[in-house]
Amino acid sequence: MTGRLGTLLRRHRTAAGLTQEELADLAGVAVRTVRNLELGRVARPQRRTVEELADRLGLSESDRSRLVAVARGGDVEDVDDADDEQAGSLPGDLADFTGRAEELGRLAEEAESAGRAGAMRIVVVSGPPGVGKTSLVVHAAYEQARRFPRGSFFVDLRGMDDEPTTLAQALDQLLTALGVAQLPPSTDARLTLYRALSADRRGLLVLDNARDEAQVRPLLPSGPGWLVLVSSRNTLAGLAGAHRVPLRELTDAETHTLLTEAVGGGRIAEESAAAVELGRLCGGLPLALRVAANRLAVRPEWSVQSLVERLRDEQRRLDLLRAGDIEVRSAFELSYRLLDGPARRAFRLLGAVRLPGYSAPVVAALTDEPVPVTEDRLDALVDAGLLTAAAIPGRYALHDLLAIFAAERIDEEETAADREAARERLAGHLLGRTAAAEGWLDPACPAPGPGFPTATAAVSWLDTERPAWWWAVRYVAARGRHHDVLAAARHLYWYSDRRHLAVPWDELFALGVRAAQAIGDPVAEATQRNNLGWALHLVNDELDAAYAQHSAALALAEAAGDRRTIAWSRCYLAGLLRKRDDPVATAQAVEHFRTARGLLWEVDDKLGWIVASYSLSDLLRSIGQLDEALRMVQDAHDGWATALPDRLSSRPLRGWMRLRLGLLQADCDRFAEAEATLLAAIEDFVAGDDPNGNGRVHLSLAEVLLRAGEPDRARDLLDRATSLLEAVNDVPSLRHAEQLRAQLEAPLR
């Protein structure tokens, strides 16, 4: 009688509008208890539990007596058969179904609309293999069955099989579930009968595992008031009028709940950190999580940590994610096998380079196909559930387990030479694009070359494809392609000035130092040591290590007689010396700047001369030489206006000059002028997309407002400055911000 008890309990619960969780909470029992009762898994339920459930359901005395009688194993006469069973053919619900609250909410809204509007509602639940599409639509069908008292029906279309369910087979299942005892002889006659029967009733129909639209269309009911839930790895874009619910991986919280339900709360609680890692190794994929949970359930002697340690090995992970006849790799293979040859090749070539995201041009470089053709391939992979369209248009993501599967496929189906050729094509494409972007970012470049229409487009590409081009730099470095490494370091220099945290710049410029040493170019080595010192100083806040790099760079440049590199080395050293707050060091810094300024003028490095001029102005201001400081910053500004093109890439340079000018104006108690100048500097940094400069000028404006006696405005600016500086990890400026904050708070103490 346990099956009849489950049917009767479910009917009363859905009639009451309660979920299993809500009923369990009202009755003070575990959710698993309600689930197991409804699934017929409890042979002898406790009378007290059944009575408590009956009371919380608000049953009439007769309904309550019948429920208790069935629970006690009463005879058939104890129960009215006509009321117990809905017409239908739903498979069993998962006893430990977890999460998906948002998706279930959307499906509930669609069910309500079907009933209220009297129209048919079609919902396609799509997603990658193993994401739990079938579990969701079946669970949702049970939750919404009360809205469709005349039947809930289920057909497995077996879309991933070599021989999917035919129309005739699907109609046989549906007509039988609808109570037809004698089926018409032909498929056409059965289809006509199905349409006639579905036109006269409301119902809920689950079409599971659909291959394509052609499988679904003939099975759609012909009458109003139906809710049709379709699950498919394909998005079924051609199914008109359908609402779509893309299914993603489980969240960390949902993953934890699933493992707790499947493995046992105590076991998971004891190894919570390992459980979190287990969920992430499974990528939040319900199929993988259930396999892992099953392995732990049948191996009570295993710790969660022991399974985690096995799964860390990517070469073994898919082998381990198998339990009985459930296998993650097989789920992937079903979708892969159904692709055409070019789409399969595109998928497996993704395994050549593991990236967090892919664009059509990146994949086109891997496949050596035109971008429009590649876009079609990517669409096919998305439709097959093997690739996910990201939130950013034109971007795609590959699930971690699918990335492992793609790597398996490329190793099995492509030669070593073909794999390496794909990587070479990609590295060449990416480094070529960084070279094209440099022209838009270098303030002194008179005319950027083709490749990007604007500076904003160049920076956007560098931001978006950062993991890819960083891979390319390390790829050529690992292969000893020293000239390519030096070119990449040169092309990315001005981007590093805008994005301090984009990549580990100390690592990139250290690669540049080694490349220059390998080819025996002391000037290139000095340049890369200066770049490395900049990263160690401004990004890592390692002042002594930075000083050593710039000192080595100066020695190399002097030995080679390269005046330009000598000048830049002196500028960098001066910037470090002034931070020592020592009169001797300050005097050395002034001398370095003056010498550098003269050398840069001699070699006609206008950009360097401008930087040396406003940097010297900043230092002179700090020691009270305001007149010369003003003259220096004015020289720098005049040099910017006459020597550099007025483009977005040169605007931050003017911003730095205006920042110095604004501080000097404040020193002369010209606070209104100072504020206007600093606000103009903010415009320059915003226009030039320089977040570090933007943070620094906000900090300076806060300081000026504090000095002008406007603490409230200063506090607001300081909050904004801190946020900007934290984003770029400008440690020295953040320390200065804390000092200003202490000054602001001092009167309040």
CATH topology descriptor of the domain at 101-246:
Rossmann fold
Top CATH class of the domain at 101-246: Alpha Beta
Strand content: under 5%
The number of helical runs is 39
Category from helices, strands and their pairing: mainly alpha
**CATH superfamily label of the domain at 101-246:** P-loop containing nucleotide triphosphate hydrolases
Radius of gyration (CA) equals: 35 Å
Report the strand count: 10
The residue fraction in helices comes out at 55-70%
Q: Describe the biggest sheet? A: 5 strands, parallel
Unreliable residue runs: 75-86
Q: Distance N terminus to C terminus? A: 75 Å
Anisotropy-based shape:
elongated
Mean pLDDT: 89
Q: How does CATH name the architecture of the domain at 101-246?
A: 3-Layer(aba) Sandwich
Biggest β-sheet: strands ordered side by side in the sheet: 2-3-4-1-5
3D architecture notes:
The chain is mainly alpha-helical. Among the domains are: 83 residues, lambda repressor-like DNA-binding domains (434 Repressor (Amino-terminal Domain), Orthogonal Bundle), CATH 1.10.260; 146 residues, P-loop containing nucleotide triphosphate hydrolases (Rossmann fold), CATH 3.40.50.300; 73 residues; 84 residues, Winged helix-like DNA-binding domain superfamily/Winged helix DNA-binding domain (Arc Repressor Mutant, subunit A), CATH 1.10.10.10; 98 residues, Alpha Horseshoe (Serine Threonine Protein Phosphatase 5, Tetratricopeptide repeat). It is 66% helix and 5% strand. The protein is built from 39 helices and 10 strands. A 5-stranded parallel β-sheet has the order 2-3-4-1-5. It has a 3-stranded antiparallel β-sheet with strand order 8-10-9. Helix 29 runs antiparallel to helix 30, helix 29 packs parallel to helix 31 and helix 38 packs antiparallel against helix 39. The longest helix is centred in the middle third of the chain and has 26 residues. The relative contact order is 0.04. InterPro entries: AAA_16, Cro/C1-type_HTH, Lambda_DNA-bd_dom_sf, P-loop_NTPase, TPR-like_helical_dom_sf. GO terms for molecular function: ADP binding; DNA binding. This is HTH cro/C1-type domain-containing protein.
